[in-house]
């Protein structure tokens, strides 16, 4: 299957999930995750109109970012080591993996030096799977209280990864859980601005994520392919 065909199939599935859940297609944005593919393939994805590009390691993203730069809008979706903040800051437009205060402070410090603001998603480990990064749900509110004091970070939403399930339906409680946490956060009054976004859903489970309120889905293999 070529890229164009994959896009059409994915698009039809997104539309159908939106229809089933009474949501509007414009409320769900797609991040094309290009971590498995090279610069040429990434270029084609952008030419097809998918300008939101997700990468999870700076080493892999670098040649693409250097060649394509502002043709894309860049989302850092992987675990971010504190000593790598200097590489990604000012290049990636969104950070989806804010999950600890040391990282928040380093992002804030570097952003302040560069006089920019960084839109961030807080990553929550809703499933409790040990292999997953992210805050434990019970630590979200105290974390937001601390992060709220930093001037350069804009918390715009929450992000999670569901465990891979052969039956994607089984991921539903994870996505519903993230939505509930967002609503609780908005009810808590801890943030000056309410957060709207839920970054959740990947190739295996994006339809369930849409049904549960995803505003950003992160699609790699199903959209971009593997190589
Ligand atoms: C790789 C990756 C994706 C995309 O994975 P697919 O299953 O190929 O769609 C999404 N989010 C994160 C955080 C990833 O690392």
Describe this entry's structure for a reader:
This protein has 227 residues and is of the alpha/beta class. It contains 9 helices and 8 strands. It has an 8-stranded parallel sheet with strand order 7-6-5-4-3-2-1-8. The model has no long low-confidence stretch (mean pLDDT 96). Bound molecules: pyridoxal-5'-phosphate. Pyridoxal-5'-phosphate binds next to β8 and α9.
Secondary-structure map:
Elements: H1 3-20, E1 29-33, H2 39-47, E2 52-55, H3 58-68, E3 73-76, H4 85-88, E4 94-98, H5 101-113, E5 118-123, H6 140-147, E6 153-159, H7 172-188, E7 197-199, H8 206-211, E8 216-219, H9 221-224
The site of pyridoxal-5'-phosphate (PLP) has 14 residues, from strand 8 and helix 9.
Keywords:
single chain, 227 residues, alpha/beta, 8-stranded parallel sheet, 40% helix, binds pyridoxal-5'-phosphate, PyrdxlP_homeostasis, Ala_racemase_N, PLP-binding_barrel
Shape: globular
The helix/strand order is HEHEHEHEHEHEHEHEH
Strand elements, count: 8
The fraction of residues assigned to DSSP E strands is 15-25%
Using the 3D structure, state the CATH architecture. Answer: Alpha-Beta Barrel
Strands side by side in the biggest sheet: 7-6-5-4-3-2-1-8
State the share of residues found in helices, binned by percent. 25-40%
Determine the CATH superfamily: Alanine racemase
Q: Could you tell me how far the N terminus lies from the C terminus, measured between alpha carbons in angstroms?
A: 12 Å
The CATH class, by name, is Alpha Beta
Main sheet record: 8 strands, parallel
Secondary structural class: alpha/beta
How many discrete domains? 1
Q: Which small molecules are bound?
A: pyridoxal-5'-phosphate
Number of helices: 9
* Radius of gyration of CA atoms, rounded to a whole number: 17 Å
Low-pLDDT ranges: none
CATH topology: TIM Barrel
Mean pLDDT, as a whole number?
96
Function: Pyridoxal 5'-phosphate (PLP)-binding protein, which is involved in PLP homeostasis.
Modified residues (N6-(pyridoxal phosphate)lysine): 35
Keywords: Pyridoxal phosphate
Protein name: Pyridoxal phosphate homeostasis protein
């Amino acid at each position: 299957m070529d890229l164009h065909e994959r896009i059409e199939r994915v698009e039809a599935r997104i539309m159908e999930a939106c229809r089933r859940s009474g949501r509007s297609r414009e409320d769900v944005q797609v991040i094309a995750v290009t971590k498995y593919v090279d610069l040429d393939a990434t270029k084609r994805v952008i030419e097809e109109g998918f300008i939101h590009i997700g990468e999870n390691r700076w080493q892999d993203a670098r040649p693409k970012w250097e060649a394509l730069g502002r043709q894309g809008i860049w989302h850092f979706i992987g675990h971010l080591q504190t000593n790598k903040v200097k590489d990604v800051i000012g290049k990636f437009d969104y950070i989806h993996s804010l999950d600890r205060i040391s990282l928040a402070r380093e992002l804030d410090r570097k952003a302040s030096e560069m006089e920019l603001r960084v839109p961030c998603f807080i990553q929550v480990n809703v499933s409790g799977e040990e292999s997953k990064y992210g805050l434990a749900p019970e630590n979200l509110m105290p974390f937001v209280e601390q992060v709220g004091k930093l001037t350069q970070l804009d918390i715009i939403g929450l992000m999670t990864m569901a465990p891979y399930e052969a039956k994607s339906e089984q991921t539903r409680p994870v996505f519903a859980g993230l939505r509930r946490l967002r609503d609780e956060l908005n009810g808590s009054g801890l943030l000056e601005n309410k957060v709207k976004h839920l970054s959740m859903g990947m190739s295996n489970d994006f339809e369930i994520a849409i049904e549960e309120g995803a505003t950003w889905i992160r699609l790699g293999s199903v959209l971009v392919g593997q190589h």
